Amino acid sequence: MIYTYTLTPSLDYTVYLPGFSTGKLNRSEEVYYYPGGKGINVSRVLKRLGTDSTAVGLAGGFTGDYLEQFLQDEGIRTELIRTDSVTRINVKIKSEQETELNGPGPEITEKERLQLLDRARRMERGDWLVLAGRIPDSAGADFASELAGICRDIGVRLAVDTSGPVLKELAGMQPELMKPNEHELGELFGVEIGTKEEALKYARLLVGQGVRHVIVSMGGEGALYVSESVEAEAQAPEVKVVNTVGAGDSLVSGFISALESGESAKDAFTYGVAAGSATVSRSDLCRKKDVDALAGQITVTRLKEGE
Ligand SMILES: Nc1ncnc2c1ncn2[C@@H]1O[C@H](COP(=O)(O)OP(=O)(O)O)[C@@H](O)[C@H]1O
Ligand SMILES: O=P(O)(O)OC[C@H]1O[C@](O)(COP(=O)(O)O)[C@@H](O)[C@@H]1O
């Protein structure tokens, strides 16, 4: 089973308008209320790609009710702990530019923290735990490393798609997959990353620390894949950009879904990039038929042989 962990879910209030000015009244023409949070997006895309998962996390208030119902209506298994904090609303403004306003995550109590850790203890060898999105300070400084320790002890494959100082700790705990974008990778090593060559250098350092698969996503530039035996670079296909929210999450979903179907890491990487780009071209995440079509158009260059 694949479990996605979202400590900071959201309702993504997504508005489209032709022009947006700060300090003025703006009227939007089209609005959507999508469930959000990175792990939630991973579960939604996995479902569309035909792979089941369970969305674990916290939900509260009217937005939490909406979120849970929405996921259940899509046939996604949920194990959301009900919390007193109202699930945040993240505002995504789509105009000439994309502007985002993300709220803080919930205040996590000690009881909730222990529940999240206990749930991981009941997972089985070979399961995936996808830890995605921000980890609020209230979860405690050692939450992520405790969770990673549980995964390591049981043999649960940990996929990490988060940001901030916790990335450094997790990199040393043998996660199966890390998917930083170039900025998160740079932050991890205290450098600015501007080219694929620089990204490759730091991705190799992560593999050297014991991460099995490293994917560095670089927006419209595509992505890099690095493991001990294979290194590859993918060009993203040209697509009309409608909404980039969830592109990184879709990449993670495409990669895991394809690996679970028995694809090689390189083919899974290609499928992941296709899923990321297919998501960008739609308002509400990718559809399988678009991912399948794009996967055939992606150029992947092997930088190192193997597998
Ligand atoms: N403008 C774009 N055009 C085509 N594909 C894109 C674009 N932006 C993102 N993607 C696809 O989505 C993937 C993840 O995007 P990225 O923005 O790097 O992730 P994150 O959301 O984690 O920052 C990219 O590797 C690429 O495949
Ligand atoms: O575009 P990405 O990075 O894949 O993730 C998008 C998701 O992340 C969020 O922006 C939340 O991010 P954080 O948990 O890092 O605050 C959600 O609103 C959105 O659904």
From TrEMBL:
> In what pathway does it function?
Carbohydrate metabolism; D-tagatose 6-phosphate degradation; D-glyceraldehyde 3-phosphate and glycerone phosphate from D-tagatose 6-phosphate: step 1/2
Carbohydrate kinase PfkB domain location: 12-284
- Highest taxon of source: Bacteria
One annotated Gene Ontology cellular component of this protein: cytosol
Which CDD domains does the record associate with it? Answer: FruK_PfkB_like
Keywords for the protein's UniProt record, in alphabetical order: ATP-binding, Kinase, Lactose metabolism, Nucleotide-binding, Transferase
Q: Per its record, what are the GO molecular function terms?
A: 1-phosphofructokinase activity; ATP binding; tagatose-6-phosphate kinase activity
Q: Which family does it belong to?
A: Belongs to the carbohydrate kinase PfkB family. LacC subfamily.
Q: What is this protein called?
A: Tagatose-6-phosphate kinase
